[in-house]
Write a structure and sequence with these properties.
about 290 residues, alpha/beta, Carbamate kinase, 16 strands, about 25% strand
């Protein structure tokens, strides 16, 4: 399958037989009609990509709710969640025990052979504890063997961002960082980062349709990109510079266009790939999900 998107000066491409990584923000997984529609669209996209999709998800909003119910305080540093030892068990329960299982169940109900994973499974990710943030793990290496075996068996991997250190202790890995390293490990051609925000916004609240990696870093330094979007954009910058994959930050799968998506890419990558437009292909995702 080949996907190309061309709007204005934006070209988002999926190479023939390319692999797509989709990162879901936890805010999109809140139970309700919005989540059901998202899973519909995701299932349809997986079908269109012949199952060659890796899904990574976080769950910050749900973790915050769990911690608040226990009288525990959560805080972030540059968009990265601090995870004291006392919080880690609750993080794992929310991400691996609840959200991952619910997402897998929803996809299975729509005909996807989804498999729920943590980043510990099959030693998929090696992580080192970032001690100043508690039980936060930084990815050191990725082994894509398990994902490749799942694809060969016709399964779709759905990974939450719980990992483990060398001693077997659980760690919380930022889902954007996990997406970065998995995209490189599996050789993704396109990474879609789904969030509640329609891409990177300018001072007027309008979506910036196209940013190269150098400009994106400048926008972070200027403060235009801030809060949780910093971690997403920095992960996107690393993805495009290390792998050459295109990254799309958007709030939907059904109709990606210049008004609701930011493309972060290397300028030279757009001239190398040809195919039908993503704009023509992705609206069919919502149609085929009905």
């Amino acid at each position: 399958m080949s996907i190309e998107q061309g709007y204005d000066n934006n070209d988002v491409f999926l190479q023939p037989d390319g692999l797509v990584v989709v990162k879901l923000s936890g805010s999109l997984l809140v139970e309700g009609e919005g989540r059901d529609e998202l899973i519909d669209q995701l299932a349809a996209l997986i079908e269109r990509c012949d199952g060659r999709v890796v899904v990574v998800h976080g769950g910050g909003e749900q973790i915050d709710d769990r911690l608040a119910s226990l009288g525990l305080h959560a805080f972030k540093v540059d968009g990265i969640r601090s995870t004291p030892v006392a919080h880690m068990v609750h993080v794992a329960e929310v991400l691996a025990g609840r959200l991952n299982t619910e997402l897998v169940a929803g996809l299975n109900a729509r005909g996807v052979r989804a498999i729920g994973l943590t980043l510990c499974d099959g030693k998929m990710v090696e992580a080192q504890v970032q001690e100043e943030l508690g039980r936060v793990g930084r990815v050191q290496a990725v082994d894509p063997s398990l994902i490749e075996h799942l694809f060969e068996g016709g399964f779709v991997p759905i990974a939450c961002s719980v990992g483990c250190d060398d001693a077997g202790g659980l760690v919380n890995i930022n889902a954007d960082e996990a997406t970065l390293h998995l995209a490189g490990g599996v050789g993704a051609s396109l990474v879609v980062m789904l969030t509640r925000t329609p891409g990177v916004l300018n001072d007027d609240g309008m979506t910036i349709a196209d940013i190269d990696a150098e400009t994106a870093e400048q926008l972070i330094d200027s403060g235009l990109i801030h809060s949780g979007m910093v971690a997403k954009v920095r992960a996107a910058i690393e993805i495009v510079t290390q792998t050459g994959a295109e990254v799309v930050i958007t709030n939907q799968l059904a109709d990606i266009n210049k008004h609701n998506a930011t493309v972060i890419s290397l300028a030279s990558s757009r001239q190398r790939r040809k195919a039908e437009t993503l704009r023509q292909s992705l609206p069919d995702v919502s149609a085929s999900a009905n």
